[in-house]
Amino acid sequence: MNFSLKIAEQIEVAALALEQGALVAFPTETVYGLGADAENVEAVANIYRAKGRPSNHPVIVHVAPEADIRHWVSEVPAPAQALIDAFWPGPLTLILKRAPHIPDAVSGGQDTLGIRCPSHPVAQALLRAFKHGKGGVAAPSANKFGHVSPTKAEHVLEEFPEEVASRMIAAVLDGGQSDVGIESTIVDMSRLASHGPVLLRPGHITVKQLEQVLGVTVNAPDQAAPRASGTLEAHYAPSTPVALVAVDQLDATIAMLHAKGKRVAVMAYEAHRDTEKLQAWRQLNNDPIAYAHDLYADLRDLDHVQADIILVEALPTTREWQGVADRLRRAAFDSQGVLQAMLGA
Ligand code: TXA
Ligand code: MG
């Protein structure tokens, strides 16, 4: 890909800033990441500080397509290599045994490491420029802990105005809107002998696709599965309460809330809603891939319209909807009971 001179220069400057221990926000095909040199413990600690994230939550290491992942992990079992061959570069994170010389700060003290090779051209250019492509950039999503992940550069600025102004975050690279729109699928491949492959976070790459490559079942997480903050019950949440509502309840719910003077925002599949009763509304796509692309930007927009509640039409329960259904369930987790309380009041 040919970049404009401006972004090419910004990438060079950002790579240098990373080498010097600074934080840099950058686009990936899933969501924007807040990156630091994965081998610089101080720099990684600054990610946690900026995000307000507990330090025992591991972050994902991002590597260039040419990178030698054996620098990072002690073992690449054949099934893990098969997933790499099938899905990298792309929105898939593998959990593998961490190489002994890699600081455990990146994996929150666990003996494993989350690693992925992103497909976004700006992310790849940054990774190739950083330490001549031999480094790794530790990067969680570029949002405060628990918030909705950013899918545009402007979302990152919205999350971190002070950190950008103070240059704690040295650069925010703009790569346009993230294509996928939800975070990478995470598969634990670190305990194959005892547990087989385990899905830690559903995403754009579906269980069905993983199973087609692996030829075995991908299991649900067990009690001993590695911790993942993206799997906390409450996560990915706007500040406005979110409630999931079945389609046959939606009109009645809107009418009741409206009658009680509540300001309601809605995300629904159907276009013909009583829009004058609504503060704002977004039409959802009935394709899960297109839905994921817009989900976080829509949630952020609706978070800004001063609504009392965001009602989201309930999703289909089929496997291809697993990724977005997971994010919406967590976004709504903290607001359980809010809708009932509003209707009862
Ligand atoms: O798409 C993505 O994965 C984005 C972009 C920026 O690459 N990153 C992202 O990072 O979503 P974050 O930190 O918001 O979520 C990473 C998830 C967390 O739930 C974390 O706990 C899990 O990956 N994770 C990372 N390393 C792990 C490890 N060693 N064991 C278990 N979970 C791990
Ligand atoms: Mg996150």
TrEMBL record:
Entry EC number(s): 2.7.7.87
The entry's keywords: ATP-binding, Cytoplasm, Nucleotide-binding, Nucleotidyltransferase, Transferase, tRNA processing
Catalytic reactions on record: L-threonine + hydrogencarbonate + ATP = L-threonylcarbamoyladenylate + diphosphate + H2O
Location of this chain's protein in the cell: Cytoplasm
Domain of life: Bacteria
Domain YrdC-like: 8-205
One Pfam family, short name: Sua5_yciO_yrdC
The keyword Hydrolase belongs to this UniProt entry's keyword annotation: no
InterPro entries assigned: DHBP_synth_RibB-like_a/b_dom, Sua5-like_dom, Sua5/YwlC_C, Sua5_C, T(6)A37_SUA5, TC-AMP_synthase_SUA5
Record-level Gene Ontology MF annotations: L-threonylcarbamoyladenylate synthase
Record function comment: Required for the formation of a threonylcarbamoyl group on adenosine at position 37 (t(6)A37) in tRNAs that read codons beginning with adenine.
Family: Belongs to the SUA5 family.
Protein name as it appears in the record: Threonylcarbamoyl-AMP synthase
